[in-house]
Amino acid sequence: MRKEPAPPAFSDFILLLISAAPKLGLPLDAVLRGAALPPGALSQRGVPIPLSAARYVWSSAERVSGDPLLGLRVAETLDVGTLDILDYLSRNSESFGAALSRFIRFAPLLADSGELSLSVDGARARFRHVAPNGLPAVSELLAGMTVLRARTFSGEHVRPLAVRFRHHRRGSTGAYEQIFDAPVEFGAPCDELVFRREHLEMPFRSADPRLCEILEELAQLRLQQQRRVDAPPPAAPSGFVDEVRHALRECIAEGNPNIDQVAVRMGVSPRTLQRQLREQGTSHRALLAETRAALVDRYLTIATPSRHALATELGYASARSASRALRRR
């Protein structure tokens, strides 16, 4: 019987720690020593890495720092945007509940491990993380980040009814309660944040539904790309395909990347372009989606997105046309 591959993590999961390291005085050389990371994992988002390597880095960071509450410290230091598209999706969501739902859906962009869920039980809402072999530092990072981001985006002092962790207490109770301002329990069946049900309807001040719609479609594209990591590697791209990518980038910059314009730049007819791309195992639509996803990655590293700027960056006439076109993919 074929053994199923281990669920992957992605370099974004390591980059969180790298981003926080200077503020925490964490020596990265010592943390990363012995980590079996692929090229690009320390500088590029979306690079697949073994889950075992991600666990090693976080365990190493905890050991090197000597701080049993490292996960909470990292949560406190992460600026908005460190989580890339996940942060921007949350910030532009209409409510806390909507942000949690989107985070659950797209959390595999960080690591495809464990199970996140949001449920309502009477007057209470429960945000749960079930990971039998999870690291305590990561569990505390997730809980701390969830509460602190909710406060930042809503402008309200969000206070859980209860905070529960599967692991045993690792520091003073006061350190936990200082962040959560709520009772904290240990040795629970799973990691869990309990809120009042009405907290789910709490609006976010920064909400932009149209921008959120665009970001959600782009996150879905990225998720689809990352789920192909276990597929056989594609053949090396031909020079022709690279030329089409270059033409697409130029056409996107001019605001009209349709196949007719790309064909003009390539000096062929649209029908010939379609045929040649088909022979290479791809299509105009596939390359356009890939090129736009790459542009979003670059854009989010240098700017805080606005709906109009992001639509322009992707070569759409407006945010409305961007969201409409992306939904068709």
Summary, kept brief:
This protein is of the alpha+beta class and 329 residues long. Helices cover 53% and strands 10% of the residues.
Describe the structure.
- It is globular and about 70 Å long.
- A hairpin with a 2-residue loop joins strand 3 and strand 4.
- The relative contact order is 0.11.
- The protein folds into 2 domains: 8-201, H-NOX domain (Alpha-Beta Complex), CATH 3.90.1520; 209-327, Arc Repressor Mutant, subunit A.
- By secondary structure, it is an alpha+beta fold.
- It is built from 15 helices and 7 strands.
- The protein has a 5-stranded mixed β-sheet.
- Pfam families: Arabinose_bd.
- Residues 242-329 form the HTH araC/xylS-type domain.
- Keywords: DNA-binding.
Please render the helix and strand layout as text.
Elements: E1 8-10, H1 11-24, H2 28-32, E2 48-50, H3 51-65, H4 70-77, H5 85-91, H6 96-106, E3 115-121, E4 124-130, H7 136-154, E5 162-165, H8 173-180, E6 184-186, E7 191-196, H9 209-226, H10 239-254, H11 259-266, H12 270-279, H13 284-302, H14 307-313, H15 319-327
Parallel strand pairs: 5-6
Antiparallel strand pairs: 1-2, 3-4, 4-7, 5-7
Helix pairs in contact: 1-3, 4-7, 5-6, 5-9, 9-14, 9-15, 10-11, 10-13, 11-12
